Amino acid sequence: MKIAVVAKWIIIALVAFFGYKLVAVLIKSISNIGKTEDTTNAVIDNEVLVDTGTQTKLKAAANSIYAILQPWRTDEAALYDAFSDVTSEPEFQLLYGYFAVRDNRNLYEWIRKRLTVSEVATLNELLNGQGIEYQF
């Protein structure tokens, strides 16, 4: 009799746990839908303003930034160098759009996750010096 009660509570706990995990995954997936659409719209709107060669350079920069942010110890100098190629607001918006959402994070979330507060401030100063008003 006691074993049946314990088994019942174990089953209830497992159902509750996996139900919670399923709902969490669904909510996260739904929240990422808007992020992808926003970056796609930014790319479409700004590709007209930036020449094809620069677009190619920005796509490569987005991939470089993603690679730089991967290791446990981020190479800040290489990251600043990748952002130094972005010289206008439309270019920055394209870069942000090309980065899109990778591993369930957009560029803002990657930067905030991997850099310290002072490194983020340095990156923001670099962007502001190039006429880009965006702040990480």
Structure description:
The protein is mainly alpha-helical. 76% of the residues lie in helices and 0% in strands. It contains 6 helices and no strands. It has helices at 2-47, 52-68, 76-84, 89-99, 107-114, 117-129. The longest helix has 46 residues, at 2-47. The relative contact order is 0.12. The model has no long low-confidence stretch (mean pLDDT 83).
Compact description:
With 136 residues, the chain is mainly α. The protein has six helices and no strands. It starts with a helix and ends in a 7-residue tail after the last helix.
Compute the gyration radius: what is it? 21 Å
| Count of separate DSSP helical elements | 6
Sheet having the most strands? none
Residue windows where pLDDT falls under 50 for at least 5 positions:
none
Please state the average pLDDT score.
83
Q: Roughly what percent helix?
A: over 70%
What distance lies between the first and last C-alpha atoms, to the nearest angstrom? 59 Å
* SSE run: HHHHHH
Query: Could you tell me the number of beta strands?
Result: 0
